[in-house]
Amino acid sequence: MEPAQCDQHSVTNAQIADTFDQIADLLEFEGANPFRIRAYRNGSRVVRDLTESAATIIADPNRDLTQLEGIGKDLAEKVATLVRTGGLPMLTELLERVPESVLALLRIPHLGPKKAAALFHQLHIQTLDQLRAACEAGEVQRLKGFGAKSEQDILKGIPQAAQAADRLYWAQADEIAAELLAHMKTCPEIHQIQMAGSYRRGRETVHDLDVLVDATHVAAVMDHLGAFSGVREVIVRGETKMAVRLQRGFQIDLRVVPAESFGAALQHFTGSKAHNIVLRGMAKDRGLKINEYGVFRGRKRIAGRTEEEVYAALDLPWFPPELRENREEFNWAAKGKLPALIELTDIRGDLHMHTTETDGKNTLEEMVAAARQRGLKYIAITDHSKRVTMANGLDAKRLRKQWKAIDRLNQQVQGIRVLKGIELDILEDGRLDLPDDVLAEADWVVCSIHYGQNQPREKITERLLGAIEHPNTSAIAHPTGRLINRRQPYDVDLEAVMRAAAKHKKLLELNANPMRLDLDDVACAAAKAHGVYVVLGTDAHSAHDLDKMRYGILQARRGGLTKADVANTRTWPQMKKLIGR
Ligand code: DGT
Ligand code: CA
Ligand code: CA
Ligand code: ZN
Description:
Distance between the termini: 64 Å
Helix content: 40-55%
Number of helices: 23
Shape: globular
CATH topology of the largest domain: TIM Barrel
CATH class of the largest domain: Alpha Beta
Bound molecules: 2'-deoxyguanosine-5'-triphosphate, calcium ion, zinc ion
Oligomer: single chain
Structural class: alpha/beta
Strand order of the largest sheet: 11-12-13-14-15-16-17
Number of domains: 4
Number of strands: 17
CATH superfamily of the largest domain: Metal-dependent hydrolases
């Protein structure tokens, strides 16, 4: 078979967006004009969110990318060059001045582009390892603008930056996986194809994609992978195994297996390692052997074609991949009680979203229409309260005005109920950001800590407990404040928070934003054990952000949550009862 032609349409929107992001990063490192940097970041978002391919729009003589908001003449030309040639001279020039590896320095918390540039130009630091060595040798604190304290902070931030360079958000991996699958499916030699690894298990970050193919004509499949437009280099190509690197270093591992081993290989390469170790032990106990080729008694393969058959050979049920972490899954299986994990279609309402009144991109009316279109039965509008000045947070007067608009809207729209809500800041001193009489009028009050995140554990915990004990609150948003790959959770006694939430019938959020996913999977399981219901919210800042619910669903499933464990699978009246309102 011929490898896929590299025609005009092979550069995807995500690749264009990634290129713009990379340019923005490099420009930022060089200290370029902030407006110019922002133009690339905006352009990246616009292209990424397009529902049709940019290449298609360019190919159409009657259309023009500059018709899109956020895409000017300059960016439109760059997209055209990318589509035409697959590359961009501007990026090549930037990379001649600044090696790509220095961008890792920008991922260190609080190390802005200026300081990163100083490290690069004055100490010739290009990698995180070199930076660590320089910190340990005390060279960094001698630079102008740095001190002993900032040297310590940098040293502390290096592991997080290293992880960020190494692991993509699941949502980013998903974008790549979708493009890769679409490409691979055009290869007629492939009988079955599946993603395995941490991606299939729905982990919040993914190091590499493990792709499994059932085919007999191995070379054709490998040629086809090599022709994927994102591929930058082939790392290895063997008999059945191939690994390629994409732009920005992300790796894809391909394995080609025969049909009789496909299920065994899928099981094996889905992992996790810890889950597989237990399986090997169970096989041994039964006088069997399990590996990526099948389950064997002596030399005889007794299973391997499907995962179901592989697990059944060990008297086990098929495990949803999200549960395969060797936490509770084997205990549940032994009791015959695997939980029926929650699914996206179980969700009836979304209780965390913003509008143009604060930092959202779409109006109240647009958010309601988008929610309705997605089949949601109720939503809460939860714009920021006034403490969040950066987002133009609402005071009592503006909030009441918004609620009036919601009352009017509820009389006009059919099929969806709009709740009067607020994302209420828990202030640094523990007080709530709006007066009690306002909160008493709300349908839904979700409380957040946005400021004072560096306070000591007792103080943070006390602030959250205060919010939970308040009679007019409903839930705690993103309860640990972490940003995956960027910011550690604040120091909080989650046990105490969960006990209080159970006692006062308050909910804890699982924020579905792929950078938050807060509570995480382990904390979701703990909440359930404490008898606390979890509420899933997208924290949407635009209409299409409402689609992020599925990321939260994955994390909830990893936490072993069922439909019943998640509050907003209920109708709003049922849910109100649940929280005793
Ligand atoms: P990642 O890629 O770090 O996000 O996590 P995984 O779980 O995808 O890890 P990966 O890509 O190294 O391996 C995929 C699966 O293959 C893993 O979950 C278990 C299985 N596996 C089989 N043999 C080995 C082995 O020798 N080493 C590792 N690391 N995994 C193995
Ligand atoms: Ca992997
Ligand atoms: Ca791998
Ligand atoms: Zn929010």
